[in-house]
Design brief:
Blueprint lengths: L25 H11 L2 H9 L6 H18 L7 E5 L6 H11 L3 E2 L4 E2 L2 E5 L6 H11 L12 H14 L4 E5 L2 H4 L13 H14 L2 E6 L4 H6 L1 H6 L2 E4 L7 H13 L12 H8 L3 H18 L4 H13 L13
Parallel strand pairs: 1-6, 1-7, 4-5, 5-6
Antiparallel strand pairs: 2-3
Helix pairs in contact: 2-13, 5-6, 12-13, 13-14
Length: 325
């Protein structure tokens, strides 16, 4: 049985303020940060740069089309699986998807185009339903004694009222894989898996699952899952080569510093440190930018040397040490 610390139930509307805030484009934000020359703002900006490399672009285009189908009321709009090890870009993709469809609160209604849930242990059916209902702003005190069937009916009505077009299940291996060994081949995912299928069939909202590569087993075994949610993207670390150089060049161009560092020149060294993991790449370069901003100098290799030390300690080689040339 799960307890309340096993999953995330933060209300999507907790941080929404009534006033409308204008969004500024990335280039305007870059210029503002560069003008302020704030080291930590620069660090944060680099960590959050969206880079349109092939995997990212193709997955975003698929997600956009999926959500458009759902928004237009398509019956059985489908779904998306984002599979990959940690740091390959799954969470960042989910963030970008959710930014496009941010929740809104008006005087008359709460509009929540996308609901996101994440579990760190296997949930029960009630856990799953209650987590979704809380995200949709329901008064949970009034739902304590309701049956699974009642909660499901309330959820379906709440999804319509909130104009929800997609449900994101992050860390989805906890929904499916924990019960894989105990289920027969025609009913993978246990009772929660059956519940998710029922919600999809009844609501016509899209589902997006994000999790480890092991989720591929579900698609291989369960035809009901595979035919409902067909889109699959396996996100991988970059190999050392032209695409990785292009990624570094794109990050370099976006860095809020007046001069480029020509990071692509150091592609082999950066790949040795990060193994092509996009999260590690961004964390490492963001740290180097912080050192560069603090030092107010253009000694790129020196800042990269410091960044390797302060990001990874002694767990990775440091090819920027002076004796490496």
């Amino acid at each position: 049985m799960m307890n309340s610390t096993d999953f995330h139930t933060g209300n999507l509307f907790a941080s929404i303020t009534p006033e409308i805030r204008e969004e500024i484009c990335a280039e305007q934000l870059r210029e503002q940060i560069m003008a302020r020359h704030n080291s930590w703002e620069m660090h944060k900006f680099v960590r959050n740069i969206p880079i349109a490399y092939d995997q990212f672009r193709e997955a975003m285009e698929f997600a956009d089309h999926l959500l458009l189908r759902s928004k237009e009321g398509s019956e059985g709009p489908g779904g998306l699986w984002l599979l990959g090890d940690g740091g390959c870009g799954k969470s960042f993709l989910l963030e970008q998807i959710m930014k496009k469809y941010a929740p809104q609160e008006t005087i008359h209604a709460r509009i929540c185009p996308i609901v996101k849930v994440s579990f760190s242990a296997q949930p029960t059916q009630k856990d799953f339903l209650r987590t979704l209902l809380k995200q949709l702003g329901q008064n949970m005190a009034l739902l304590n004694d309701r049956s699974i069937a009642d909660l499901q009916k309330i959820l379906l009505a709440a999804l319509v009222a909130a104009k929800t077009i997609a449900i994101i299940c992050d860390e989805a291996q906890h929904l499916w894989l924990n019960v894989l060994a105990t289920r027969v081949a025609d009913r993978i995912g246990g009772k929660v898996g059956d519940l998710i299928k029922d919600i999809y069939n009844s609501s016509n909202v899209a589902f997006i699952f994000s999790g480890t590569p092991g989720l591929q087993k579900i698609l291989d075994i369960d035809s009901q899952v595979r035919t409902r949610w067909k889109g699959v993207f396996l996100l991988r670390c970059f190999s050392n080569g032209p695409e990785f150089e292009d990624v570094l060049s794109a990050i370099d161009e976006a860095i809020p510093l007046p001069e480029r560092s020509n990071l692509e020149r150091y592609a082999s060294k950066i790949h040795l440190i990060t193994e092509g993991n996009i999260r590690d790449v961004k964390d490492f370069i963001a740290q180097a930018v912080w050192f560069a901003a603090e030092a107010k100098s253009a000694s790129a290799e020196g800042h990269l040397f410091q960044a390797c030390q302060k990001t990874f300690g002694q767990s990775r080689p440091n090819p920027f040490e002076p004796h490496h040339g």
